[in-house]
Structure formats: structure tokens, C-alpha cells
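On clarity, I found the account of how folds are encoded harder to follow than it need be. Since the whole study asks how a given chain folds, the encoding of that fold should be made plain. For the editor and my fellow referees, an illustration may be useful. An entry of this sort, consisting of the sequence and the corresponding C-alpha cells, reads as follows:

:::
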Amino acid sequence: MIRNKKNLVYVGGLLSLFSVPPILAQDNIQPVGQEPEEREVQPDVQAIAEYGGVLTPKGRLVLEPEFQYSHESINRMTFQGVEVLSTLLIGVFTAEDVDRDNYTAALTGRLGFTDRLELEMKVPYVYRDESNRVTVSEVDPDFTLNRELSNDALGDIELAAHYQLNRGLNGMPYFIGNLRYKSTTGEGPFDIRRNSAGTPLELTTGTGFQSIEPSITMLFPSAPAVYFANLGYVFHLEDDINQQVTQGEDDLFIGDVDPGDAVRLSFGMAYSINPKTSFTLGYKNDFIGKTKTKYVNNTSGTTTQVSSNTLNVGSLLLGWSYQINPDVSVNLGLELGITDDAPDTTLSLRMPIGMGIF
């Protein structure tokens, strides 16, 4: 008698580092001449990713402590003056050297509410530090300005829901719909202290604006790998700030602020080395639109609208995952910025812990 066989290849919690959960990639071997049965195989999942994935089973709770560190270094040279020859410049050179370090400790909880619906909540705590050194040459003597800023506080709390749209029958990919809401519990740009000239005296720990992000995730098991892709759109909600930012002859008030919306894209592959270890290679990119800000001059009564530049934030994703036991895994991820607007490096350490509660 010929029996059906399954070749199971486990891709661990590493995918949760990059917006995709771990699953079991399966190859099915059918008897010769027998038509394959249409059937649903629910992948084994430990952690739902930030942007969605195959859902955690009903009644299962995943608690995921996380520590993240990111670093960004900016070196900029500017010139104001006259170019006499291609090798002779007369004017003022300004050199700016900025180093930014962000530390985030977060706890994420995910609950399998039904077999197809999962609810998620993330609570972050943020510490930021920035060192800014500006040197102006061609001045007697050279002028150097050093500024040190920092702040630590609660970040923006996030709520999310994930719904599995199909059953992944007969080798079809899994599609998951996601909806994420980001609050304003962190200290935004209009919550921090400023001097009379409007210069910030501390750093933000949140964006200061609510956002809603619908997205869709695709997972395609192909043993011993799992391919993943995610596409989302972030709606940042406009807000009427109505806050004074400078004091003096020209008192400036900030009126309506419309943050730029963003398109988010990520894709990659997770590869199983053995039943407990896997690695991931991927790429993600955020295309962020212009932010429009209205300034009102109380002295003259004039209103001016200023638009920021668009941003292109792209990063290469590398990661590793180890399955300690069926309920606990360790995930280590590294993001390397490859566009000018992306942080240089981001290192993340996560430990999803699963448990059954009903």
C-alpha cells in the first residue's frame, strides 16, 4: 500500500523580523495516477509580523519583547559665496556633522482571536540622542557650534488586526489583509520644549500624527524556502496645530499640518538551514510624500504654506532565527540603509513567547 508522505521544512521565527511570520513549507507526494485531494494545510506560526502574516491559531497568545538600536550619521558641506574659477571659491564654507542614536524597548502582544483573525498591540519606550557639530570656516576665527539633544519617553502605541483571506489550497500562496493604527502617545514635534526662536531643546519620541495603514501580505511556501511580499499605504491624518513657535517681532503660529502619506513595499525569502535555524534575505522601501505646513505671521497677518521634500527610505534586510523550543524562539535582524534618507544601520533582537490561553 502506498501512503502519502510530507516533507516538512521549518522556517523559524526569523520572518517576524521583516514583516513575515514563520511557517512550515510543505511538499506533498501523491500516489501515481491518483488525483490530489483539495485540502487546507494551516502553517505552523510562532509570531505574526509587523506587516502581517499567516495567523496565530485560535486561543494562542504571543508576547514578544524587543530591543532595537539604530544609528544615523550625516556629514554635509555647504558653500555660500562666489565661484571665481572652478578651483577658486570666495565665500563661507559650513561643515555639519550629525550623529543620531535611537534605542527602543517594546512589548508586542498578539492574540489568535479566531482561526482567521488576529489582534495585535505594541507598546514602545524610546530613548533618543543626537550630537550636532557645525563649523563655519572663512571666519576669523573659525566658528564651531556644538549641540547635544536627548529625550526618553513612551513612544506611539500601535494597534493592528490581521485577517487571512484564503486557505492556501493546493500550493496556492497565502494572502493576509492587515490594518494598523498608530496613536500619538509619544512626544511629537509640537509637544517638545523650544526656545524663543523656535529651536527644539529636546528630541521627539513619536511622530505627533495619527496614521492608518492598510496592507496586504503574500506568503508562498516552496521548500526549503518561503517567499514573502508586502504592499501597504500609510494615511497620515491632517491636524490643526494652532501653536506659537517663535516669540519676538514676528510671532509665528503653525496652523494646519498635512503629513505626507507613504507607500510601503517589502519582499524577500526565508531559508531553512535545519529544523531549528533559518536565515532571511530581503528588502524594504518606504516612499514618503511631502509634508505641507501652514505658517501664520501674527504681526503681518500673512499665511505661508511650506512643503518639505519627499523621502525615499530603503534598507537591505538580513536576519537569523533559532527555535529554542516549540513556544520560544530568538530572532536577530539587521537593516542596512542603502538610500540617503535611511538610517545607516538598525539592529533588532526579538524573543517571541507563545502560550495557549483558551
Notes: The longest strand covers residues 60-85. Residues 215 and 262 are 12 Å apart (CA to CA). The chain has one domain: 5-356.
